[in-house]
Design a protein that fits this description.
This protein is α/β, with parallel strands linked by helices. The protein has 3 domains: about 270 residues, ABC transporter type 1, transmembrane domain (ABC transporter transmembrane region fold, Up-down Bundle), CATH 1.20.1560.10; about 160 residues, P-loop containing nucleotide triphosphate hydrolases (Rossmann fold, 3-Layer(aba) Sandwich), CATH 3.40.50; about 80 residues, P-loop containing nucleotide triphosphate hydrolases (Rossmann fold, 3-Layer(aba) Sandwich). It is about 60% helix and about 10% strand. The protein contains 23 helices and 10 strands. It has a 6-stranded mixed sheet, with helices on both faces. Helix 2 runs antiparallel to helix 14, helix 8 runs parallel beside helix 14 and helix 13 packs antiparallel against helix 14. The longest helix has about 40 residues.
């Protein structure tokens, strides 16, 4: 119980911090909607009593007018509050998405890439999609809790007189005795407790079969969403009919078919508990009718009060049952909340210091790897081993090697997306772990292998901002080789990329996208420019032209190039050759080619052979 309360309160604090209206709106809406029937029932009971009793014309008119006006006003107020609540709750998905993404953006890159992080993130959304479990469930439970508490409070206020008013008939005089009233009240309380118990047992099956439901939802979402909507997969799906594989799994794991575990439980014990809950509720209603009618028959109150007491007793019973059922729902929701908070509580391991970089525009910046080694989390083998290399200011460094040799890992360490497992990386003699993290990142403009462009305007993609220098953005696009394409675009920098948000969006090819990504790196005007296979989608001639143009335009900036085409790196003053996670060679192109037994000479000869063969 303590764990349920702790996790639940923490969840409500999150919703309150994100948007208090998501709790205030349903609270006010539930109060008005719950109180409205009480007001109508009480006024109606008074009106019936007056009609059956004194028949005072003025009082009957006043009660009728009050009944109509209060019903109209409360209905209008309830509708307005309900609209307010629906508007706020319509944002639930986006708010939860913001919570998840904010955590991802604040995490160490190593944490984001960790398999457990991705597993937890997937589970959070699977639980949300499969049954509105986790943070979503809290809002529904909050609405139910306020509704039930209001029903109980209002009902108690209107039913006290039921047990206090004495019976006048001698035959039913025993109804006044506490010896009779207490067992009746106890029996009603016992029946009230049974309803949420049965309801909670039925709801527990959602948690019991959560894993199967999540897996089935994942397959279902992949089949309909990823395979059906993702244009990047459209060609392969049509050629190889990959959807058949998913269909076969869905036939076995589909949670939406009658033979799945949850539907079987719904037809069996789950449905049985629901039926018992409903049956017990009807028993309470029958007992309430019997008790109220007997007291009315004994002369305790007029006939109109029967409507009031029966309606209110039923409402109180419903409120108590709903309150207890809500707690059962919160208890069943506990495992799903635990997953959410396990994700949100993933700690950052990288050291965050606040040392500022002073006079960086004046002082040349040099980075040195000092016996740096690194292995990815959960891996036993080193991705990089004992690397020592110095990046001198204003020079061009080419990093080459076969696939899996450690080139991209070297770049990730250089940009401090990871910290070295052993050794250190120094910036002008200072360990980069002592430097303000965001200030250090601002030194780099990088084009990664798997770079991404966003479905916004071309200029916004280049500048990575909504407000930007148009002249500078166009200059960078021309320098990256995108000038001809830019001149053909009617909206130029205002042209939206892709069609996710705009019908007139432009789909760019892989080569064009890489040129835009290079322009983005140039626009940042950082001290270090890193190109990690940025021209893989370009032909060798276009690649060589871009590298030559960038070499001229970078001026005194320090640049690092990674490319499989060794001919494109000949203009670099320094070439670092990686092999199996180690730095095995370093020097200028002519020197490395002359070392016939070296890795570089072997790679150069292999590529040259293919070009000679093609020319022949």
């Amino acid at each position: 119980m303590r764990e349920t309360i702790r996790l639940t309160l923490r969840g409500y604090k999150i919703w309150w911090r994100e948007n208090p209206q998501m709790l205030i709106a349903p609270a006010l809406c539930s109060i008005v909607e719950t109180v409205s029937p009480y007001v109508s029932v009480w006024l109606l009971a008074q009106l019936i009593n007056e009609i059956a009793g004194q028949k005072d014309r003025q009082r009957m008119i006043a009660l009728t007018f009050a009944l109509l006006v209060s019903a109209a006003l409360l209905t209008l107020l309830g509708a307005a509050l309900d609209r307010w609540k629906n508007v706020q709750w319509a944002d639930m998905w986006h708010v939860q998405n913001r919570i998840i993404n904010r955590k991802l953006l604040s995490m160490d890159f190593a944490g984001v890439e960790h398999s457990r992080t991705q597993e937890l993130r997937s589970q959070v959304w699977q639980n949300t999609d499969s049954g509105g479990l986790g943070l979503y469930k809290l809002l529904n439970c909050f609405d139910a809790a306020v509704r039930s508490a209001t029903a109980i409070a209002g009902g108690i206020a209107l039913t006290i007189s039921l047990f206090v008013l004495p019976v006048k008939s001698r035959e039913l005089f025993f109804l006044n005795s506490p010896i009779f009233v207490l067992p009746i009240a106890g029996a009603m309380a016992a029946v009230t407790l049974l309803v949420p118990v049965f309801s909670g047992k039925a709801g527990a099956y959602w948690g019991k079969f959560a894993e199967e439901n999540k897996f089935g939802n994942r397959l279902f979402g992949f089949w309909l969403g990823s395979l059906g909507e993702d244009t990047a997969k459209a060609l392969d799906v049509r050629v190889y009919r990959q959807d058949i594989l998913c269909k076969r799994h869905l036939q076995k794991y589909n949670p939406f078919i009658p033979t799945a575990k949850l539907p079987k439980a719904a037809r069996g014990p789950m449905g049985g508990y629901r039926a018992l809950s409903g049956a017990v509720a009807q028993v309470f209603t029958g007992a309430a009718y019997l008790y109220v009618c007997l007291k009315a028959l004994g002369g305790a109150f007029r006939v109109g009060s029967i409507v009031q007491y029966v309606s209110v007793l039923t409402a109180v019973f419903g409120g108590l049952s709903l309150l207890l059922s809500t707690f059962e729902d919160l208890k069943n929701n506990q495992p799903f909340l635990r997953i959410v908070f396990e994700f949100l509580d993933i700690p950052n391991q990288m050291k965050q210091s606040g040392l500022k970089l002073e006079n960086r525009q004046i002082q040349p910046l040099e980075i040195e790897f000092c016996h740096a080694s690194f292995k990815y989390p959960g891996q036993d083998n080193y991705a990089l081993r004992d690397v020592s290399i110095k990046l001198r200011a204003g020079r061009r460094l080419a990093v080459v090697g076969m696939n899996g040799s450690g080139k991209t890992t070297f770049i990730k360490l250089l940009c401090r997306l990871y910290d070295p497992t052993e050794g250190a990386i120094l910036l002008n003699g200072t360990d980069i772990r002592e430097i303000d993290y965001h200030e250090y990142l601002s030194l780099f403009a990088v084009v990664f292998q798997d770079f991404k462009l966003l479905s916004f305007a071309l200029g916004q993609n280049v500048a990575s901002a909504t407000n930007y220098n148009s002249e500078k953005a166009e200059h960078c696009l021309f320098d990256s080789g995108f000038g001809e394409q830019l001149d053909r675009l009617p909206k130029r920098l205002s042209t939206p990329l892709y069609k996710d948000f705009e019908e007139d969006g432009v789909d760019v090819s892989g080569g064009e996208a890489q040129k835009i990504a290079i322009a983005r790196a140039l626009y940042k005007d950082a001290s270090f420019i890193i190109l990690d296979e940025p021209t893989a989608a370009l032909d060798p001639i276009a690649e060589h032209e871009i590298y030559a143009r960038m070499d001229r335009m970078m001026g005194e900036k320090t640049a690092v190039f990674i490319s499989h085409r060794l001919s494109s790196c000949r203009f670099c003053q320094d070439i670092a050759v990686f092999h199996e996670g180690r730095l095995v060679q370093r020097g200028a192109h002519d020197k490395l080619v002359a070392e016939k037994t070296g890795v570089y000479s072997e790679l150069w000869a292999a590529q040259a052979k293919h070009y000679i063969s093609n020319e022949a």
